[in-house]
Amino acid sequence: MSLLGSGALAMWWNMASEMRSDFEDWHSHEHFPERMRIPGFLRGSRWSSATGGEGIFVMYELEDYSVLSSSHYLARLNEPTPWSTRMMPHHRNMVRSQSHVLESFGGGVAGHALTVRLSPESGREADLRASLRSLMQSLAVRPGMTGAHLLRHQTPAIAQTTEQKIRGQADQTADWVLVACGYDRLALAALSKEELGLVALKRLGADDRQISDLYGLSCSALPADAR
Q1: Which of 17, 50, 126, 137 is the most buried (most CB within 10 A)?
Q2: What is the residue-wise DSSP string for the chain?
């Protein structure tokens, strides 16, 4: 697989503009290094809305899905630092998808990322995955693009964490997640309206509960960066 492991954590939330500077400082200089020191965390990437909105997208690439319920990771979720404790209430409309990597082609980090949150129609899971696999293989080598990855959420059997309690509202989830990466924002924008648009995805086997967003890369980190 082209992502660095067989597990992933994909997250979306809104961060108010008056908190953006403090958030980016915290997330880049404390939170990413903290996460990258957890065994099994292989890479973290943060993107911001490409349309000037409050949206944030973060993806952690994990050695495997079991990292999401490991004692090392749960310790961090349940013992947030003072700075983390101060920032968590400002993570609004949180969506967290603890995922298995179903398909991955090409690079996992680029200047821009298109995320599509979707679900298969009942009984069409195999059709949708096969169709997306074929499309994603072509996307990874298309001009303007660098990679495409498909994730599927599974809720781990863990108790609500301290970080979740601080945020003050239940996290939402995305069932399937398609992440397309590229160096040409306009190519990704066109993709979101055409081959990964609502009509096209329904034809491939997705239902009509789809959310697409376009982001620009803000920061990326590896475990070596946290040493």
Answers
A1: 50
A2: --SSSSEEEEEEEE--GGGHHHHHHHIIIIIHHHHHTSTTEEEEEEEEETTSSSEEEEEEEESSGGGGG-HHHHHHHHS--HHHHHHGGG-EEEEEEEEEEEEEEE-S--SEEEEEEE-BPTT-HHHHHHHHHHHHHHHTTSTTEEEEEEEEE---S-PPPHHHHHHTSPPB--SEEEEEEES-HHHHHHHHHTTTSHHHHHHHTB-S--EEEEEEEEEEE-GGGG-
The pLDDT value recorded for residue 1 is 56
Structure-token pair, residue 137:
């293989």
Could you tell me which of 14, 113, 26, 9 has the C-alpha nearest to residue 55? 14
For domain 7-226, give the CATH number.
3.30.70.100
pTM for the model stands at: 0.96
pLDDT tens digits for 110-157? 999 999 999 999 999 999 999 999 999 999 999 999 999 999 999 998
